[in-house]
Specification:
The chain is mostly helical and 248 residues long. The protein is built from 9 helices and no strands. The longest helix is centred in the first third of the chain and has 26 residues.
């Protein structure tokens, strides 16, 4: 595959992740007449976007769709460092385009106003809870920081383990999608779940306010968790592989 094709696949996969995941939270989670998909539905939506995206595009780019995954794989010596910047830029562009499209669709809703956390941005603390910013349940900075580091760590441990050449072939997207679903089930009430800097950057760019002020945590914490996972995986699994990891 050419580099252009790989970057296009990363942008498209991240676009799908944000459109499907954040879109489910914005459009369907609170739907009236008892038809809302709620916490379980949104969690499944995020997991399904990764599962379907990895099966569709993983053979082209490796199916990262997440700067933390790209950096974690690089730290584990499973991805070429010279390709990191291009992948991260493509992922962020895909996330921003998806968040912008969600906003465009929202504009077609009678009475919609682009105020508060209208794109399911991440946050911590209670500072902007009245506007929908901050932690959905009011968890403080430390709790949210620990959550994002630990759950990104677990996410990368699963990715690194399930894409190991010694693991059963063909099941990686399924395992990774289910892992992301579980992560969302646990952490949506805490941070609205990031574990993915691109997913956080896209909505924050458009919502501004506290989402943009607090964005640093959702960049730093997932990357820290990913790097720690790379170190831990290489320690417990033996010598790191040098071949690039493909999720599909």
């Amino acid at each position: 595959m050419t580099q252009r094709q790989r970057l296009g696949a990363e942008a498209l996969g991240t676009f799908w992740l944000v459109l499907g995941g954040c879109g489910s939270a914005v459009f369907a989670a609170q739907f009236g007449d008892g038809l809302g998909i709620g916490l379980l539905g949104v969690s499944l939506a995020f997991g399904l976007t990764v599962l379907t995206g990895a099966y569709a595009l993983g053979h082209i780019s490796g199916g990262h769709f997440n700067p933390a995954v790209t950096i974690g794989l690089t730290a584990a010596r499973r991805f070429d460092p010279k390709d990191v910047l291009g992948y991260v830029i493509a992922q962020i562009v895909g996330a921003i385009v998806a968040a912008g499209l969600i906003w465009v669709i929202l504009e077609g809703l009678p009475g919609f106003e682009s105020t508060g956390n209208f794109l399911a941005a991440n946050g911590f603390g209670e500072g902007g809870a009245a506007e929908g910013f901050g932690s959905p349940s009011g968890f403080n900075l430390v709790a949210c920081l620990v959550t994002e580091i630990v759950f990104t760590f677990i996410f990368l441990m699963v990715i690194l383990g399930i894409t190991d050449r010694r693991a059963p072939a063909g099941f990686a997207p399924l395992g990774i999608g289910l892992c992301l679903t579980l992560i969302h089930l646990v952490t949506i009430p805490i941070t609205n779940t990031s574990v993915n800097p691109a997913r956080s950057i896209g909505p924050a760019i458009f919502t501004g306010g506290d989402a943009l002020v607090q964005l640093w945590l959702f960049i730093v914490a997932p990357i820290a968790g990913a790097v720690l996972a790379a170190l831990a995986h290489n320690f417990v699994s033996g010598a790191p592989e040098t071949a690039e990891a493909e999720i599909a």
